[in-house]
Amino acid sequence: MRLLCFIFSLLLILSYCATAVEIMTPENNAVVNSGKLYLVFTATDGARVVVKRGIEAKFLFVKKENKVAVYHYLLMLKKGRNLFYIDPEGKALRLIYKQKNSTISFKFHRKKIEKRCNKCHSLKASGKLCFNCHKFKKGSRIYMHGPFAKRKCFSCHSSGYVKGVRFGLKGNSDFSLCSQCHFAPLVWRKMLYQHGPFAARNCTACHDPHEGNFRFLLKYEPKKGLCLACHRDKAKEFSSEGYRFHPILSAKGCVICHDPHASDYPKQLYDTPFKVCISCHPRFGKIKKGHPIVAHPVVGPLIPGTNEKLTCSSCHNPHGSPYESLLYAPRAGSRVCLKCHKY
Ligand code: HEC
Ligand code: HEC
Ligand code: HEC
Ligand code: HEC
Ligand code: HEC
Ligand code: HEC
Ligand code: HEC
Ligand code: HEC
Ligand code: HEC
Ligand code: HEC
Asked: For ligand 6, atom 5, which residue shows the shortest CA distance?
């Protein structure tokens, strides 16, 4: 009787093993920071992933080992909660995609999880081996960061386990990481006016640490796209009807006047607004008076009723405007004059 029972339960376990879906990575209910994630699981042949909430589950391939099939999928997540089913069993996988880096986020490189892959993958800490799993878009990206191109992953990622997790970043901020090799940030740090994300030491808000399609490894098109990714109010202003850009902004982008990191002048300009303007419009540098009308001061005196000093950008919007000559208001009817003079 006992023996029968034993054999019976063994059979049960075996049949269970044969049909069971076992997810090897990621963990159910994991919070993740990336919109792309690998899903690897074992199942009987013929299993598939069904997307309930999420963008896509891209099937890569299945590899059989001793009758067990190991499925590789690439999941595309949308922000918030994502739900997938692995059929025919209907096993659920829930994931929460939060863009902000959080310390509680899912980490793959822990012994317990890594060892599930050992049979077929080498998980030695070698820069070359990383690419077997991490499919960085080789070739399609134009610019590669020096140490990444040389596969010196461990100049930035630590090779050993720190608090149970491997490949964490060296340095407790981007700033301390990047300034191991770059000295310019140490100079920028001493400047009077520091740009928001730079002051927050968040280099990777703008730079990809590995590779990119844009010069300086920038994450977005550098002329306007990068800046407008955060400065949404400016994007709105620029798309207003009849808006015309300052020709130099279209040609050279925002960084021709603003430093993206820091400077000694307000708004991270390379100089005072007046000097920035006359660096390209030198004929206005020689006059103190006479523009836009005879005897009108160009720079210097206080604007009536304010504490602000008159300068070029008091009348001209340095970025652009829907009106002639980048003015803040139309010239017609002297409306531009009304900003400062009550007639
Ligand atoms: C049964 C063997 C086997 C097991 C177990 C296995 N893999 Fe794989 N995996 C492979 C093979 C074979 C390839 C290479 C396929 C190819 O040639 O592109 C691969 C490729 C990959 C890739 C690259 C996929 C791509 O985008 O092309 C990733 C990522 C990956 N495996 C992750 C894992 C992880 C994580 C585990 C453990 C949870 C794991 N694999 C377990 C066999 C396995
Ligand atoms: C067996 C495949 C595999 C190999 C080999 C591998 N990784 Fe990973 N790695 C993963 C998976 C799976 C994740 C989780 C993210 C995902 O699914 O895209 C991950 C995540 C990471 C992360 C994010 C933190 C974490 O633990 O989730 C870092 C950093 C990382 N890998 C670095 C490396 C480096 C450096 C190497 C080479 C020394 C390497 N990986 C080799 C599969 C692999
Ligand atoms: C210059 C420093 C630096 C080097 C060199 C570097 N990394 Fe990274 N890596 C980072 C930083 C910083 C992050 C965090 C990115 C973020 O928060 O946006 C990161 C994140 C990652 C991640 C997780 C997120 C992702 O982008 O998929 C993986 C995987 C990874 N690195 C793999 C590698 C591999 C493999 C190499 C070597 C070929 C390497 N890294 C070399 C700095 C570096
Ligand atoms: C291990 C040293 C090392 C670390 C750490 C490092 N870099 Fe670099 N970086 C380099 C090298 C080497 C180059 C290539 C220099 C060259 O080709 O002129 C480079 C180039 C760059 C460039 C392009 C500069 C140019 O003139 O084209 C940028 C931008 C950059 N790194 C940003 C970063 C950021 C952001 C970090 C931190 C996430 C960082 N680097 C961390 C070594 C490093
Ligand atoms: C707001 C976006 C932004 C942030 C944040 C940012 N950068 Fe940059 N960075 C840029 C842009 C844009 C350029 C290209 C400047 C140009 O075209 O003149 C650049 C250029 C660079 C260069 C190469 C040119 C040079 O002037 O030496 C390095 C190195 C660099 N950044 C490092 C860093 C480091 C390190 C951090 C964090 C401490 C950081 N950046 C933060 C936008 C940013
Ligand atoms: C990652 C987000 C981000 C990006 C990208 C970014 N900025 Fe900023 N910017 C900020 C934040 C945050 C502040 C600080 C806002 C505050 O203090 O009110 C700021 C402030 C500024 C200021 C000062 C505004 C003021 O009223 O004092 C200027 C000028 C500026 N950014 C220009 C730029 C330019 C030019 C670029 C592109 C090279 C750029 N920003 C890209 C986030 C960003
Ligand atoms: C021709 C030089 C020039 C260019 C190009 C330029 N700026 Fe400015 N920007 C200025 C000046 C000058 C000021 C200060 C105006 C003042 O204080 O009177 C300023 C102010 C700002 C401010 C703070 C005040 C405001 O208008 O909100 C932000 C934010 C800003 N610029 C973002 C940008 C962005 C984003 C770009 C690119 C799309 C850009 N700038 C391109 C010269 C320029
Ligand atoms: C890096 C060079 C550069 C800087 C800095 C610069 N400009 Fe310009 N600006 C130009 C160019 C180029 C043009 C188009 C050719 C021309 O009209 O001279 C232009 C055109 C103009 C025009 C005429 C636009 C039109 O629609 O007729 C005005 C007005 C103007 N700029 C004002 C300013 C003011 C104000 C500043 C300072 C906030 C400034 N510029 C800073 C290069 C620059
Ligand atoms: C008090 C307001 C005011 C100030 C201050 C001012 N401008 Fe103007 N600007 C105007 C007006 C109004 C026009 C249109 C005049 C016209 O079309 O004859 C104009 C036209 C221009 C033009 C296009 C026409 C031309 O002459 O080329 C440029 C360029 C220009 N200004 C640059 C500047 C620069 C540079 C400064 C600072 C040194 C400056 N302006 C200061 C009001 C001003
Ligand atoms: C951004 C503010 C501003 C705008 C716009 C402006 N002005 Fe002025 N205006 C001033 C300042 C500042 C003074 C000098 C006041 C002082 O000396 O205390 C001045 C002085 C004058 C004077 C007296 C000049 C003198 O002889 O002392 C006249 C006339 C004048 N403005 C006419 C105009 C006209 C016409 C316009 C429109 C085309 C105009 N202003 C646009 C700021 C402005």
From this structure: 227
Reported as a single tens digit per residue, the pLDDT across 295-327 is 899 998 899 888 899 999 999 999 999 999 999
How far apart, in whole angstroms, are the C-alpha atoms of residue 174 and residue 230? 19
Give CA–CA dist 20/105, Å, rounded: 27
Burial of 125 (0-12, 13-18, 19+ CB in 10 A): middle
The pLDDT tens digits of the residues spanning 275-291 come to: 999 999 999 888 888 88
Q: Are 64 and 45 in contact (CB under 8 A)?
A: yes
**Which tokens in the block code for residue 46?**
């013929």
- CA-based nearest residue to 204, from 166, 168, 173, 183: 173
CA neighbours closer than 13 Å in the CB half-sphere of residue 39: 29
Query: Tokens 């006992």 label which residue?
Result: 2
The response to whether residue 35 sits with its C-beta less than 6 Å from ligand 3 reads no
